[in-house]
Amino acid sequence: MYTVPRLDDYSPDALDKPVADLTSALEQESSAVTDEPSWKEFRDHWMARKNGILTQINDLWLKAAPSPRKREVGRRVNELKAKVEAAVEETRERISGAASQAKFKSDALDVTLPGIRRPLGAEHPIVRTMNDIVGVFKAMGYSVAEGPEIETDYYNFESLNFPPDHPARDMQDTIFLAGQAHKPARDRLLLRTHTSPVQIRTMEKQKPPVRVVIPGRVYRNDAPDATHSPMFHQVEGLAVDTNITFCDLKGSLDHAMKSLFGSSVKTRFRPSFFPFTEPSAEVLISCIFCGGGGYQGAARCPNCKASGWIELLGSGMVDPALYGFVGYDPEKYSGFAFGMGVDRIAAMLYGVTDLQLFFNGDVRFLEQFS
Ligand code: PHE
To answer: Whose CA is nearest to atom 9 of ligand 1?
Structure first.
C-alpha cells in the first residue's frame, strides 16, 4: 500500500515524481474499490484527519518545506487535495451506481424463468355424483332445496313421526350437541342423521304440488372404515300432489336409476320400515358389476355378494301423519319420498373400494378425477 515519502529536494522538478507516484497510487486504489466497506477503507486511508494521506502530505511536504518553497509546494498539495476529494466522490458514485444497477437487474422480468404452475381444480367425485343425481330429478321437473346440518330433535325425528323414545330412533346412531339438557326435548340440537328433515321444512314453506330434491351432508356416530363414515351424503326426494300413487314412486325411481346406471339396470322394491313412510320400500338395483347374475365367470360377485342385487335407496309413500305436522290435508294429498346415499353410489360409479379415500384429502387420489 502507498505510503507518503519524506522529501529532501523541494524544487519544482523534484516534486513531479512524488506527485505522480501519489496520483497513480490514488487511481489504483480507487479502481480496487468494489463495495461500500472497501470504499470506506479507501476514503479513510486518503482523507482521515488523523494520519490520512492528505494529512500526511500536509505535514511531511508542506509544513516541512523551507520557506522559499512553501508557495509552490502548497499549490501542489492543494491540487492533490482536490484530486483526492474528487476521486473519493467519484468512487462512491461508481459503487452506488453498480449497486442500484444490480438491484434493477434482480427486479427485472426474466422471461426465461419457468412459470408458476397452478394445478387445475376439479369437482370432488362426491359432489359430482350428487350433482348428477340432482340433475336427473331436475330434468323431471324437481326443484332443489337445502337445510341445516345442525338440526333440532323436532325436525330430525319428532315431525317425521319418530315419537320420543321410539325404538326407530336407534336405527340412526345420532351425534347430539352438548349442553342441550336445559331445553325442551324437541328443541335440542343434533347433527342431522338424514336429509329427511328438509321434507318437513319444505312442506312448511310451500303448499302442494311439491317436487323437490334435497342434496346434503349427514352425520351418524359410526366408526370410519371402508364402508362407513361418520359424515356422509344423501340426496332426498319428495313429491306431494293430488293422486300420487305407489306407481309414481316406482316409475320415478326406476327412471332415475336407469339414467344414473344405464338403461339395462333393473329395479326391485322390497318391503321395509321407516316411521315417516307407509308403506315403505327398499329399492335395489340389479348389480352393475355382474349384470345381476351374481357371478363374474365362475367367481361370486363381491359387490352384490352373489345376490345379483344392490340396495341403494329407502323410499315409501309419505305417512299421512306427517301432513298433520305441516298443515296439509291428508284426505286431499298424497306423496312419496326417497333417500339415497351418495357416497356408496359414487364408490360404485368410480370403482372406489374404500370410502375413506373420499374424505382424507389425498391429492394423489383426487387428481384422478380432474
Ligand atoms: N331418511 C332415510 C334414511 O336415511 C331414507 C328415506 C328417505 C326413507 C325418504 C324413506 C323416505 O335412512
So the answer is: 338
